[in-house]
Amino acid sequence: MIAATRLSTPISELGLPKRARTACEELGIQTVSDALRVDRAAFLAVPGCGVKTFEAFEARVREFAESTRTPALLTLLPSNLLEVPIARLFLPDEVVTACENLDIRTISQLVTRAEELSPVIGADGVAALRDEIGRLVERGATRFLDDAHDHGESFRAFFARLSSVGRDHEDRDRLRRRLGIGCTAETRWQLATKAKTTEDEVAEWEHGFVSAAHATYGRMLERLRQEIVTELETFEGVLTGHQLAPATILRSAALSAGDPDLPLRVASFLFPSEFHHHDTYLSTRTVEQNDELIQLIRRLCRTSMLPRSVDDVRAAIHDAGFEVPHDLVCHVARTHLHRSVQIDPLHGEMITVQARTVADRLQQLIEDRAGPTPLDELLFDYREQFRRSRRGVLRDHLRGDERFLEVGVDLWSLRDRHLDELDIARVEASRIRDVICEAGGRHSIVDLSAHAPYAERQLHIIADLLRHDATLRDLGRLEFCPRHQEHSKVMSELLADMSRAMGEIPLDRFLSNQPKWRRTLVATLLRRNRQFVSPTPDRVDLLTNYPFDRDRIRRVLIIADQCLEQHGGYSTVQQILEGVQAADLGGAFLTEHLMRDLLVRHGRYEFLPGGIVAEASLGLTGWIQQRAREAIRSLGHALTPDELILERPELAEFGHCLRDLLDQDPLLVRRGDAFQVS
């Protein structure tokens, strides 16, 4: 087999005799590919070309072809395997030396020049090479089985086979909409309404489709059934989308679609008499049996009753004629009845009325998840179960209660789940505390690593321990200073410099005159510290040069809060400025830029592009981004900001800043002028 790139080699590069070149020009032969297909009789018919000329021409072309022939094996092996360096393999020294002497660097070269290498390394060397390449392929296959993308390919292959059972495109589309693959799952009633038919006809179609699927792919579906049975036995009768084991078709479905409930819907669709999907979990109980169970547990655990153990509840359910697994009782109590299941040291697991404090509700939400939970997801879950909440309120409760631990940026977990990590980090936290107290001044714990940079989780766990240390003051952004310290050295120098200036100074010029090692710190202080103020975008001054003392600032913030409350929690800087001016707290010097700067430094607000100010607890940015994502998901394709406003009219008042907010959303990607969910 000749490499494709060599077939296009010009015939002029073969060094042919003059008569042969003349014949090639006469016959229109321009490349090696043309030369291999030349007709002998046509060549000899060219004037001046005899048998010897043709034989010389043919020999030269064949010699070139043989020298560029590629081993057939190279066309079968993947390029990423062929490019693996020989040095990465675990081989005997003599084999490595022989490869280096022959300038064999990759597996591709090894395959091409195997005949040269084999006599040099002998039978033992060849066997070592075979074994090591075999282990390389085996390791790659293991990674292949564990890779989420390839699981997705596995489910797509499964769904393609399942879809082939359908008689036509309408059947396959109905199956996709019924299971919710790439769209929102539809009920029988919704399918019947769109098709202008009855639910009974849709049920009859489902029965026929499932029967045909079992008749055609019985073994494949039996494997899926065994997976479901195993998972239900493992989790005692209740299976959620987050509990699926890796390397299974069920897990493949969840990873492929990004929908943890998809495998549960697939299972209940293909095995309607064995498994039943109940909103968020799968069990062997029918819908009617599940409703009876919910009502029974509600009667056994009424809100007016004292806490009751799970074992007592199961015993009462057994007396009523039901056999229910332990985990199913706990799941129903938590998800459907909003009861709390807690472990009592004496009586075991107890079912109590759901706690009414915000912190207790947050604890229950995090307990229902397997790992740390982002604050935004907690906010959405909280609103779904308890109707209303604000982002800032939840953050305050999380930070103010010692049951919670921040293990990442706005990533929260329960402290009890990280006791070992806290014990390990306590030694490092003590060392950092001693360093800060001895050196004085502001310090970032990111820069105080003894050996290597901290992992993100370790960094936040150390920061949590330092926040609870009475000798340190938390300055935010993972920075701390001794509690007794009033001003850092840098801050004292800055105040002295600004006092000598006796007025506003150009910000950029002042920063350029600072030493490089503290330029970033000085810039942060001048832009954020409350003792400074920015009259215009490129100027900075001391706040004491303006008629704003602590009491005056407090009154300005009160007016700002009142303005936000009057406008539903958010307003513009201009409207707040008008309220401040009407209260005679400002003057001609108080511009819109200066007003915004005062609010940034002294208040706790959320600032949106376009001069919008909102209550921090409102979570306005997150709400806008969430509404946009919902619209994009519901339509299933990318939308421009104008199209989003048409789809969600409530976003119209934020049209001037909508594009900037969508650019900031990590869950969206931009395609030209439109946005789609990543």
Tell me, briefly, the overall form: extended
Poorly predicted ranges: 141-152
| Approximate strand percentage | 5-15%
Sheet/helix structural class: mainly alpha
Q: Walk across the major sheet and give the strand order.
A: 1-3-2
DSSP helix count? 33
What's the multimeric state? single chain
Major β-sheet annotation: 3 strands, antiparallel
Number of strands: 20
Q: What is the residue-averaged pLDDT?
A: 79
Keywords:
678 residues; mainly alpha; three-stranded antiparallel β-sheet; 10% strand; extended
Describe this structure in words.
With 678 residues, this protein is mainly α. It contains 33 helices and 20 strands. The strands form 7 sheets. Strands 1-3-2 form a 3-stranded antiparallel beta sheet. Strands 4-6-5 form a 3-stranded antiparallel beta sheet. A hairpin with a 3-residue loop joins strand 17 and strand 18 (612-615). Helix 7 crosses helix 9 (114-146), helix 10 (148-163) packs across helix 15 (249-257) and helix 28 crosses helix 29 (573-582). Mean pLDDT is 79; it is low at 141-152.
